[in-house]
Specification:
Elements lengths: L7 H15 L6 H7 L8 H20 L3 E4 L20 H25 L19 E3 L7 H14 L3 E4 L16 E2 L2 H17 L5 E6 L6 E2 L37 H11 L7 H12 L17 E2 L4 H11 L5 E4 L6 H14 L4 E5 L13 H5 L1 H6 L3 E6 L2 H35 L10 H4 L1 H11 L17
Parallel strand pairs: 1-10, 2-3, 3-5, 4-6, 5-8, 8-9, 9-10
Antiparallel strand pairs: 6-7
């Protein structure tokens, strides 16, 4: 918890100028105004936290450092087990609200305690920044665009600073690492981001949007309606039984061509940004001098997904397309492949030189298998920070960390009883400054704040003597 000194006016002006320089809306200010209610919608808290986070991330970007964070210690969302994102859409906003209220309480009791003392004594008192900006997982929006907008509104009302929205398919999520990840078409993903951005604008909120792309190592896509995705959709190059009937025999293969023919084919494709399947088939037929068979319907799964060949190029294209709608970019990766990470960051920054990035470490990253030495793992967060990855998260803490500690405590309690608790938990907790539980410290547990309520009702001053002012009725 850092100690921050903020000039809100200067930060607001800088923030608005920075946002205006890179955020583009596919709708007009008149449209936003028409969508608002007659009464102004309060979003000052979320905006203030967003501006605070924005400035922190940009300071990190300038200094080549990063914000290291871990997941919330509220384990409620993890109780169902493997993450299928099948919990109610308002679950995470409610968690954010609870966390933010606890932050406000600590900020309130610390502020009141400090103001009980003369100015010259406050330098020696604790002055922590308890209002750390909250970054929350919006998953895939939980339904239609209107559902996504409602979720975004709940986040703003809860006091969130930034949310991230991914491109995964609703109802098809299997945890977050491998296991048949299915994504939606590029335009559907962009529509989700636009819905969130529009809701923020309608509310007049400066809340930040983190564009999270799960395309890396995705194996399936829900639809082939978007030409931007055609390059990566796989299919059968000969007539075979549909995959649903004969999975092993109907494997997707690429058309056979010589090296020279392949070079000519790629050169033809490079002349335009995106080429549809029909266009690709036409180019391939001209290149090899005969009709080319390709059917992506034959390789579809029982649930309807099309097979997808993911690569860094595909992630880069989605990230660049999404960048104008959001503030930070995140490519969710299954493994810590340094070559892929470096390629992704550098390619996006060729288009957006000052782009801010996020990175998530999962609980089963095998750094040794990926070729990292112990020294490289130790400096990884700093190496990423120098490339613009200013927000780095270990989201599996609430599963691995708390479960590990719980198991250790349970074993200790069974073997050693209260003696083990005194030695391993209570003693170390009470010896820290501030104490971990804080119940013996009135300034930390809110004892002085409770006194202040009673004193205020009784008409007594709760601030430094001689500095109080009474409210007068008019």
């Amino acid at each position: 918890m850092p100690e921050l000194k903020i000039s809100m006016q200067d930060e607001q002006r800088a923030f608005e100028a920075d946002v205006a320089a890179h955020l583009k809306r596919p709708y007009t200010l008149q449209t936003v105004a028409a969508l608002r209610t007659s009464l102004p919608t309060p979003s000052a808290v979320s905006s203030a936290q967003a501006i605070k986070l924005w400035n922190q991330l940009h300071e990190h970007n300038k200094a080549g450092t990063c914000e290291l964070t871990f997941s919330t210690t509220d384990r409620g969302p993890a109780l169902p087990g493997i993450d299928h994102a099948d919990y109610p859409w308002d679950t995470v906003p409610k968690v954010v609200s609870n966390i933010f209220k606890s932050q406000l309480w600590h900020d309130q009791r610390q502020r009141q305690y400090r103001l009980r003392h003369p100015t010259e004594e406050r330098d020696g008192l604790e002055n922590w920044d308890y209002l750390a900006p909250i970054v929350a997982d919006g998953d895939m929006g939980f339904g239609s665009l209107t559902s996504t907008m409602k979720m975004a509104r709940e986040f703003v009302d809860a006091g969130v600073a930034m949310i991230h929205i991914d491109d995964l398919a609703i109802g098809m999520k299997k945890f977050t690492v491998g296991q048949g990840r299915t994504i939606v078409p590029t335009q559907e993903y962009l529509d989700r981001l636009t819905a969130v951005r529009m809701q923020f604008d309608v509310m007049g909120a400066e809340t930040l949007l983190l564009c999270r792309c799960d395309t890396d190592h995705a194996k399936f896509i829900t639809s082939v309606v978007d030409e931007q995705d055609h390059e990566y959709v796989q299919g059968a190059t000969k007539k075979v039984e549909p995959l649903q009937k004969c999975l092993r025999e109907a494997q997707a293969e690429e058309a056979v061509a010589s090296k020279e023919e392949l070079v000519a084919y790629n050169a033809e494709l490079s002349k335009q940004k995106f080429t549809s399947l029909s266009g690709r088939r036409e180019f391939a037929s001209k290149t090899v001098g005969k009709a080319v068979f390709f059917d992506w319907e034959l390789s579809r799964l029982a649930m309807g997904q099309y097979m997808l060949k993911s690569c860094v190029k595909g992630i880069v294209e989605r990230a660049i397309a999404a960048a104008p709608l959001g503030d930070v970019t995140w490519a969710c990766m299954d493994s810590p492949n340094w070559k892929d990470i470096l390629e992704f960051l550098s390619e996006v920054r060729k288009v957006y030189p000052e782009r801010l990035f996020a990175f998530g470490y999962t609980g089963d990253f095998d750094f040794a298998k990926a070729g990292f030495s112990d020294a490289q793992v130790k400096s990884l967060h700093l190496d990423l920070a120098k490339l613009g990855v200013v927000w780095q998260v270990q989201p599996i803490w609430s599963l691995q960390g708390l479960n590990l500690v719980t198991e250790q405590f349970s074993k200790m309690w069974q073997e050693e009883g209260i003696a083990g608790y005194l030695k391993s938990v209570q003693g170390p907790a009470l010896s820290q400054k501030p104490m971990t539980d804080g119940f013996e410290k009135l300034s930390y547990c809110g004892g002085y704040l409770a006194d202040a309520f009673f004193e205020t009702v009784a008409g007594e001053s709760i601030v430094e003597k001689g500095k109080a002012a009474n409210f007068q009725r008019h």
